[in-house]
Amino acid sequence: MSRAHLNSGRAKIGDFREMSRANILSILDSIHGNKVLVWDECLTGPVGLVAEYSVLKEHGVSRMFSMSATGLPSVRVDSIVYIIRPNVENCDIIAANIRSEERRGGSGLKMDYHIIFLPKKSLFCEKRLKESGVYGSLTIYELPIYLYPLDTDLLSMELPDSFKELTLEGDPTCIQYAAKALMQLQMVCGIIPRIYGKGAAADRLFRLMLRMKQEMVGFESNIKPQIDSLVLIDRSIDLLSTLPTQLTYEGLIDELFGISQASVKVPADRFGGQQQQQAGDVPQPTAPSSTEMRQVPLNSSEELYQDIRWLNFNAVGPSLSRKARSISAQFQERHEAKTVREMKEFVEKLPSMQAAKQSLGTHTTIAEMVKDKITAEGLMDTLEVEQEILSYVNSDRYLDSVEDLACKDYPLTKLLRIISMQSLVSSGLKPKVLDMYKKLVLQAYGYEHLLTLQNLEKAGFITPHNGQKTFGTLRKRLNLISDIVDEQNPTDIAYVHSVYAPLSVRLVQQLEKPGWRNIRDILDILPGTSFEDTQQIPTHLKNISRPDDQPKVVLVMFVGGCTMAEIAALRFLSQQEDKNVEYLIGTTSIITGSNLLQSLQTDLQPPVF
Hints:
This protein has helices at about 5, 15-30, 45-50, 55, 90-105, 125-130, 160-165, 175-190, 200-215, 250-255, 305-310, 315-335, 340-375, 380-390, 400-405, 410-425, 430-445, 450-460, 470-475, 505-510, 520-525, 540, 565-575, 595-600, and strands at about 35-40, 60-65, 80-85, 110-115, 140, 150, 155, 195-200, 230-235, 260, 265, 295, 530-535, 550-560, 580-585. By secondary structure, the protein is of the alpha/beta class. Helix 23 (about 565-575) links the parallel strand 14 and strand 15.
């Protein structure tokens, strides 16, 4: 995506990306000669959103590889540059690589070794490199990139294990990174005047931001505020919204194929003779591929995708049909062009018409693949069970339908999603029901999943009944369940799950009207503290007010991840004519119920004798 496109929203996300790009290019320019980049595999895609491979090549990068314990390929360059997350496993691999190169004599030329820690170095890593005896051979850099732009209204920290680190490991690193990210964003987009939050992690994040602000006295942003309010949401206050199957077009693509850094990889053979289209020149390390896949970019720079991504999947087919008729009518205009001027006007429109036709073909094919997977994976059976649970009927009983799924070799993660959903809706499972589900999982899938069940209980997904009916109260007061949803022309955010409105988004919606002070009793039911505060704006910027016809910009920051369905719901609220609010979304990562629960799974390993 271009800088101009990212800047097309109220908040200048393109300028924020340029700051990150300047940081990485500055480091590369300080390293002499030809360079080979060796990537921590989890950083290839995120950094590609900031600096494409073509840009890196202009700054002395000749080749790129994924980091591997098997060693470096034979290359003749001046510098080897590792770009890694700060963990000791990566440092061990680098140390092994360097020792291996020294033993075999390298390429015959003197090579310099560099490490770029992203976003910052750690004392543990430096200590490990010293213990390995390679610290003196390395030059160390820090690359403070905390947020990556996925679209004009979406920023992600790309930390997929943030929820696990917070809840199971007690590691607050992602909170520190989130505070740094929000402080960086305010340097580019101006100070955010009002801050609201809910949850323990949100409170810790806010307090850390206050401390950082005190340390930056005299260095505050002098830019006119582009964001009016910040809402901090701790994922732990709303675990339920991660679990129901997402039913928007974008959400189903993520559920079934997995969206990564605003693109999806799908089988290339389904596209027939369509021209291959790569995702925004994302730098890809050389790696063999057993099955040919096509990488399709998914962002708002493509007009058709912007129009259909937030739709319920049942509305996507009719929308594509209308688009096909519109494109066909445009191509028919060539027969009506009689004069030279009319022919010239048609020819000028032809490139955009051909791009629209190719886009239509791409998304028609993807929609067909989604539909095929829904049938192949028996998703309709899952939806029936989910809606039975969400309807709050028999939600406190042992469900035979769950046992039936387990007997059909249903994927364990998906079964745990359903059991977790029932537990959260029922405010915990009765002891007898909980024991029956645990027995079902261990007997059907193996006793090695015992630790996984313990992890899910610790994280709050599958717990004993606490004697309350929290969901029942929330369901009524916040209108979380809608029995009748117009999927074609929705009027409420419940369309993203066809029945359930995400609690997190409903809280954000309530903040604007009637305000959190009017639902204080509801906020008190949810775990963690709730708070609101203000930040002082420099005096010379106070008189610059937002025009009345300009919507208010609210940044919603999820600590622990958010789903595409929640993002779609916030975008839906932004598009409502009676709303004067434009939502910007930030998150530690984009998640689905399945990959969130997978991050919490731990298999028991047999002892080694």
